[in-house]
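Take our chain:
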Amino acid sequence: MTTWDRDKVTNSKNNLEGAELKGLDLSGLDLSKANMISANLISADLKGVTLVGANLFSAKAMRADFSGANLSGTNFLKANLTKTNLKEANLNDADLTGANLADTNLEKADLIRAKLVEANLLGANLAGADFSEAKLTGRYQREGYYSRGANLSKGKLMGANLRGADASGTEMKETDCTDVDFTNANLSEANFKHALLKSSCFVNAKLGDADFRSARFIDCDFSGAELIETKFQGVDLSSVKNISAKELQSALIDSETRVPDYIKVIWKSEDTYECELTS
């Protein structure tokens, strides 16, 4: 078995498939386009490393430190990045499909146009991260069936940017979405149960079939948001801004739903209603 050190890694970056690099100090190295398929990077120091276009398919990088690294266009398909430090890393256009990012630190990371299909971000710190135009959906598995999207449940998403992101079917149960910008995002069928939504921006967002039951709303902006069959049963919407009476009528509410003062709900029967602006 090859014994790897920093110099040997630098000279062999095109042939690191399956390499045992556990705990090595590889900080600051330029490993662009390196072949690191199935490499063992557990607890490795990769601070400031350049891995542009590298292939880390199925790599094991639990507890590794990629803080400040340039990982743009890197292939992390099905990689295990549990408890990894990716703070302020550049992951623009990276492929994290099926990757395990549970309890990972992605604070202020750039994930513009990144692919996070079926990625697991359970409990991750995503504060201030940029997910604009990222793809966090599920995938087609068989005729008429798609898997759920990325799992962001119990995460810290405060101040994150998801403008224009495709986050349909994502799991955001019990996630802190304070100050998150969801402008123009596709959030259809997303699960926001028990989420904290304080000053979140849903301007022009697609929220069809999204589930907000038991979520907490404080001063959120719904200007231009699509709300077809959006689940608001039992939810307090009294503080939300710019929600359309027409769109709210297409959503699902009940007698326990509290609406803003500028909207009046006229109940026609136990489960049918009309919404109109108050004069």
